Amino acid sequence: MEYVGLQQQITSNNRKSILLLIGFPSILLAGLYVVLIFVARGNINEAFLSATPFVLLFTGLWFLIAYLGHSSMINYATGAKSLERKENIRVYNLAENLCMSVGMKMPKLKIINSSALNAFASGLNEKNYTVTLTRGIIEKLDDDELEGVIAHELMHIRNNDVKLLIISIVFVGIFSFILQVVFRTLLFGGSGRSRKKDNKGGALILIVILLVSAVAYLISLLFKFSLSRKREYLADAGAAEMTKNPLGLANALKKISGNSEIREVKNNDVKQMFIDNGSSKKAFFLIRWFRNLFSTHPPIDERIQILEQF
Q1: pLDDT of 187
Q2: Hey, how many other C-beta atoms are within 10 angstroms of the C-beta on 203?
Q3: How far is the C-alpha of 279 from the C-alpha of 299, rounded, in Å?
Q4: What confidence tens digit (pLDDT) does each residue in 80-109 have?
Q5: In this structure, what is the dihedral angle of CA atoms 49, 53, 54, 58, given to the nearest 10 degrees?
Q6: So which residues are the catalytic ones?
């Protein structure tokens, strides 16, 4: 994939971040309006205007909590610890040389005690930008390969991919939460009520909310997946430019393929941040197309082919 330039990527991702900050609440409010069409009694517009401040307040509080606590949540989900310089001077030298070559501040380095081969970047500002590597990827890659992986993660930071991804994860999480609450309420709620009419009316309202929430969640999910897949291609290309050695990352991806699963990490949102989170197994065209549509990463074999032709 052709590298489109750092500043162009940063500008594009900043624009997308703003659109996400506007777009996801807009989808939420649009869903609210559709629900009110079916359930509101009286003036729908008045009901919508009355409910909007509460929806925006809920969204703002959710985002603020996630924004402030995302690093702790990620560390808890992955079990990542600080990477000690004395014991890992090789990793620090590779990272510091790459950062100096492009004039960027050195991020924190962390490690996950797993034999799997994987890595990810996280953070929202220079104070908490972090590159996290598994013990397996440090031990099993040679210097050129590990340099390619670190450069890939540094590009996610330089391109502001990490900000964009975290914002999308936060807002998709809101839709997921609403969907789960409504589904569980519909499944388990109201079992002790005696008035059948009220039960039927309440169930109908919940079904409408469930359907609208499901559509909004699906739209936001597909948008998030699309952003995630594209950012991997751009980070690969940027890493090739940074290291002047595209085969280093290509060979690293070959070793990572089929060996990237970290069983200890259960959180799907965190898994989305890793350099690889998908299967490279071949399948029929339609099956592969459908699988890739709901995948957080492009097929690793396609990424390798692009790097080998870089």
Answers
A1: 76
A2: 14
A3: 7
A4: 999 999 989 999 999 999 999 999 999 999
A5: 140
A6: 153
Contact 125, 108 (CB under 8 A): no
The residues spanned by each domain of the chain are 6-308
Q: Which residue has the tokens 């609440």?
A: 25
Predicted confidence band at 113 (pLDDT cuts at 50, 70, 90)?
very high
Question: Which of 21, 85, 134, 94 lies closest to 245, judged by CA?
Answer: 94
Residue count (the chain):
310
Q: Cα angle vertex 183, ends 177, 189, to 5°?
A: 120
Residue 229 CA to residue 295 CA, distance in Å, equals 8
pLDDT score of 40 more than 60: yes
pLDDT, position 13: 61
Q: Which residues pair with 132 in a beta bridge?
A: 110, 120
Burial code (b: 16+ CB inside 10 Å, e: under 16) for 122-146 equals bbbeeeebbbbbbbbbbebbeeebb
Contact 121, 153 (CB under 8 A): yes
In single-letter form, the type of residue at position 227 comes to: L
Q: Are 133 and 91 in contact (CB under 8 A)?
A: yes
Report CA-CA distances (Å) from 298 to 218, 278, 302, 305. Answer: 19, 8, 7, 12
- Predicted structure pTM score: 0.79
Mean pLDDT over each residue of the chain, to the nearest integer: 82
Per residue in 247-257, pLDDT (tens digit) is 999 999 999 99
What does the alpha-carbon distance between residue 28 and residue 217 come to, in Å, rounded to a whole number? Answer: 9
- For 96, 135, 141, 183, the CA distances from 256, given in Å and listed in that order, are 23, 13, 9, 38
